[in-house]
Amino acid sequence: MTAARLALTLGDPAGIGPEIILKALADPTIPTDNITIFGSRPVLDRAYQDFHSAGVANPAQLQIRDLPLTAPVAWGQGSAATGAASFAYLQAAIQATLAGEFQGIVTAPIAKSLWQAAGHDYPGQTEVLALQSQSPDYGMLFVARSPHTEWQLITLLATTHIPLQQVPIQLTPALMSQKLGLLIRTLAERFDRPEPTIAIAGLNPHSGEEGKLGTEEQDWLIPWLAEQRQRYPRVTLLGPVPPDTLWVKPGQAWFQTAQTAGVADAYLALYHDQGLIPVKLMGFEQAINTTIGLPFIRTSPDHGTAFDIAGRGIANAQSMKAAIQLAAQLSS
After folding, report:
1. Do residues 145 and 288 share a domain?
2. Which helix (H) or strand (E) holds 17?
3. 139, 234, 236, 296: which one has the fewest Cβ atoms less than 10 Å from its Cβ?
4. Closest C-alpha among 292, 264, 282 to residue 319
5. pLDDT tens, residue by residue, 39-98
6. Same domain, 202 and 331
7. CB 254 within 8 A of CB 264
8. 188 and 176 in contact (C-beta within 8 Å)?
9. 23 and 129 part of one domain
10. DSSP string spanning 237-251?
11. 123 and 18 within one domain
């Protein structure tokens, strides 16, 4: 790993964020000298006391940007106060990163409902990062490396945190062009894939089956794809692939080494669950959420606050560790 300067946000202090951060930073391959935690020192000190037998880093040996709490915190008991704290951690990390102190941000999980309870009306951390960094052209990219075959799954969402009924309304040729261009640039600049193969999902079952099961594919998605193939002659665009078969080859590549040849370099899913159900099914402990299109690197574990197991010392830190490692890699 390179010595990228990274800011780690604690996430909701009542969740598993403190535990997985200290577990991840106990790994000797992660250079903690270049990492600063944005959170509350008393929460980290308590996490060390409660989980030291599980193998965690000592907060006394870490760099911490201490932000005070307004109320006591109990493991697993999120509140408006913990929601406000997690929002404050993120804001402080963004400001410091935009000021040039850090090259990237790694965010621990937050509870969106508790942000709402604290008066912060945002769909999630991704949208706050984009807004505060003035980055209108951004996307949610999920990266996971198979522990079975070392094959890397890369998935971009065209739409993110919106109701399902809004998906066909928000999906337009302009939006798809923006997301595809962002994905192509990211694959070239961050993953060294200048001539990638990208598989693009259909919206309807069987990709509409020639208009019998939905007309979006016939009306605009297929013509749009033809235009993009002309626009990007060095990129192989597959699709629109029926959503139920889109994930067959990635599933084979994830579990079977002999099946990794010829699989696409990246996948463009049209809505949240279309992309994230297969990603989490295959790589729940390995998947990383990275926001692309920002002026800095941002990664995050692809799981939530897990209030139900917070305080028990059994949280798996693999996704947090992978998020830190990917942020360091991409920052270099």
Report:
1. yes
2. helix 17-24
3. 234
4. 282
5. 999 999 999 999 988 889 999 999 999 999 988 999 999 999 999 999 999 999 999 999
6. no
7. no
8. no
9. yes
10. EEEEEPTTTTTHHHH
11. yes
